[in-house]
Structures are given as structure tokens and as C-alpha cells.
Amino acid sequence: MAKKVLKFGGTSVGTIDRIQHVARIIEKEHLAGNNVVAIVSAMVGKTNELIKLSNEISDTFNKRELDVLLSSGEQVTSALLAGALIKLNINAKSLLNWQIPILTEGEHSNARIINMNVEKINNYLNEKGVVIIPGFQGISKRAEITTIGRGGSDATAVAVAKILNADTCEIYTDVDGVYSTDPNKIPVAKKIDKISYDEMLELSSLGAKVMQSSAVQTAMMYDIPLEVKSTFTERKGTKIFNQENIDYTKSVTGVAYSKDDAKITLIGVEDKPGVAANIFEPLSKAQINVDMVIQNISSDQKTTDVTFTVKRDDVARTKEILREKGEINYKDIIHNDKVAKVSIVGAGMVSTPGITYKMFRGLSDEGINILAISTSEIKLSVIIDEDNTLNAIKKLHTIFDLD
Ligand code: ASP
Ligand code: MG
Is the pLDDT of residue 207 over 60? Predict the structure, then answer.
């Protein structure tokens, strides 16, 4: 008998048929003798729909009321799922966040779960009942309803799994796991059976959005094993856990890419202490996310070039800020907003020599020019012309034996 936390995303509970299907998945676990706590998202599209409604009233809709509004989506699916289980003659009960309670800290729409009382949950599990909890929300110390950020049901699931000391935390979704690259673009992409938290984070921050990144980070911090699997097939999913428990037969686990990147270069920047800080401080204050940064060695000891990447939408604002900031002296500022970042990710990379060269050679064989490079322990990224993205992914997927 195991204690299982099962999380069902928006598509999995998107219609009444699907909710009934989810009820049968839970029924199976329950009849096998497992203690089940299910965390649910709102029906797919619901949260966006509610945000739209609030915007029709005001685009600065009151934050407190927005949380009251948005939390309703998950309340609806919790009750429907509990009702569907009761119809199958299973004892089931929804427990809303204030009833448990799940305590959060921080601002409205961006709160964090800090604690919860497990008594009611455990009591009901002991009575052989199934507990359904709405994801994405909690209550503050002052008993205000809060939400914990978009995609937050994943975070609720991980928090509940941690505090209940659950045996598994399974994330049911509309894909059957994490792939070696985007299966919609590269049909030979393979499902990954096991992946480490770090690799998962790199892959998801690079665009393979399967789970909310901060939820994966929490799971990593507390060593809570996760499994991402499909609600709609019986196939095995992807297990996400600690790196030490993975045997790496391949040095590269996946190839990721991000779209909508842009590259900005400041030419002839004065080479003296404080210059980099002067460039990036105003950008960070303006909430502009800078990704890669490359500074050339200055050959004349006086000036250098600084290249960095930002999201395409931020190019105009970035240039404006740098022009307005009097403290930075440079000759010219240029940009290229038709670039993409392609990365190979793998915890096995550190222990395999020659990966870097192999990647660069592969790209050059395809006639792809590398515009910038950045590396970390488990990731190697290059910036290339956007038009070459697909070719680059295909080539790298092949040469690192992922096809
Ligand atoms: N319903 C919320 C959202 O769409 C939370 C979630 O689904 O995880 O962001
Ligand atoms: Mg989600």
C-alpha cells in the first residue's frame, strides 16, 4: 500500500468525460489499496477566461478579488471529480484550501505555500477515502484567499507530497513524458525514461514546458521523486529524480531550443571596472531578463565589445535604456532579432570529453554559423540564425545518438 499524490492538469480535467476518466484512474489506484490524494487544475482555458472577464471590468482589477475569482476554477474541478468518484461508489471528498488549511505567504497572485495542516487529509485517508485538493491556491495568515502563480497546481502537488511524505508524486498531463527534443518538430524524438531534476530544469527553462519549473526546484530541494505521465495512455512516463540514481549511458539527454531570442552588441565599450554593472543594472531594474552574456577580450586594453541576449519583445526597450543611460560610453549598438538558442543538455556531459568539439563540428558540417556560445556543467548553448534552428536540432539529435 502506497501513499500517492496524483496531480491532474487542465487538459486532463477539461471536459466531463475526461473528469470521469480521471475518476477511473483514481478508482484503480484506490482499489489496489493505495491512499490517494488528487490535486486538480482548473478545466483547460478556464483561468485565462476568468482573467479576461476581470479585464473587462478593469485592466487593473483588484488583486485580492482576482485571487478569489481565479481560485474558483480549481474549486469547480475538485467538486466535479469528487462527485464522479462518489458516483463510482468510492468515498471521496474535496478539501478546499481554507478547510485544510494550506498556508501561504507573499503577494496576491504570487504567493508561496509555506505550511499546511495534514490532520484532515490523514483522517480521511485513514477512513479509506480519497481526498481531492484544488491546486494553485491557499490562504494567507489573515485568511485571505491567495493564488501561487500560473501553473501553480504543480507546486501544490509537490508541497502536498512533501508534507504527507508520499511515496510518489505523479503529474498526469496531456503528453506522455519528457522528450529528447520537441516531438512536434522532430518526429524521431524519444521519450526519456529517467531524468535528473537539473536536466529537467534546463530542458523546461529552454522551452520544453511540461512542468512548472519552480515546482521541480522544490522537488529537487526536498528530494521528492516525480513522474510525468499521460492521462490518456497507459504508457510509462518520465521519472524525475536525483542524479546519483541515474545510470548515464548517453552523455547528452536532450536537445532544447528557445524561440524569440535577440542578440544585442555594444561595440567599443570602455574597458574599465564597473562597465558591465552599469550596462546590466538598469536592465534588471526594468525587469528585462538577460540570458547569455559574452564580453570579448580587449585587444587594445581600452575598448571591448559586449554581446548579450534578451527576449525579442525587449529589444526596443533595452536599446532605449542603454542609450538613455549616460554612464555607458560605447561607439555603436547593434542587434539581430532573428536568432535562436539551441542547447544540448545532459548530466553525463561532464564526464565525457569531446562533447563541445562534437557539437561545433556537427553545426559546421551543416554550414551553420555560431554567433555566441555559453556553457554550464550540464548544458552547452549556442546562438544561431533562427532559420537554422530545425536543422541544428536535427543534426545534434542525430550525432548525440538520440534518434
Ligand atoms: N489553473 C492555473 C493556471 O492555469 C493553475 C494550473 O493549472 O496549474 O495557471
Ligand atoms: Mg500545468
Answer: no
Ligand 2 mean position, distance from CA 142 (Å)? 28
Q: Give whichever of 132-146, 256-270, 272-286 has the largest mean pLDDT.
A: 132-146
DSSP label of 314: G
Residue range 164-196, pLDDT digits in tens: 999 999 999 988 889 998 888 888 899 999 999
- Tens-digit pLDDT profile for residues 293-312: 988 887 777 899 999 999 99
Confirm or reject: Cβ of 152 under 6 Å from ligand 1.
yes
Question: Which strands make up the sheet holding 194-196, listed edge to edge?
Answer: 92-94, 130-134, 35-40, 3-8, 168-173, 226-230, 238-241, 194-196
User: Which atom of ligand 1 is least distant from the CA of 74?
Assistant: 1
Is the CB of 308 within 6 Å of ligand 1? no
Residues 182, 207 contacting (CB under 8 angstroms): yes
Contact 226, 298 (CB under 8 A): no
Domain 3-174 CATH (choose: 1.10.10.60, 3.40.1160.10, 3.40.1170.60, 3.10.450.50) = 3.40.1160.10
Closest among 371, 355, 367 to 392, alpha carbons compared: 367
- Tell me the average pLDDT of the chain: 93
Mutate which of 43, 44, 46, 47 for ligand 1 pocket (most atoms within 8 A of beta carbon): 47
Q: Is the beta carbon of 150 within 6 A of some atom in ligand 1? A: yes
CA of 257 to the centre of ligand 1 (A): 24
Whole-number Å distance, alpha carbon 338 to ligand 1 midpoint, is: 31
197, 241 in Cβ contact below 8 A?
Answer: yes
pTM of this structure:
0.85
Ligand 1 center to 231 CA (angstroms): 17
Judge residue 38's burial from the number of C-beta atoms within 10 Å of its C-beta, 0-12 exposed, 13-18 middle, 19 or more buried. Answer: buried
Angle between helices 197-205 and 213-222 (to 10 degrees): 170
Q: Give the three cell numbers for residue 86.
A: 462518489
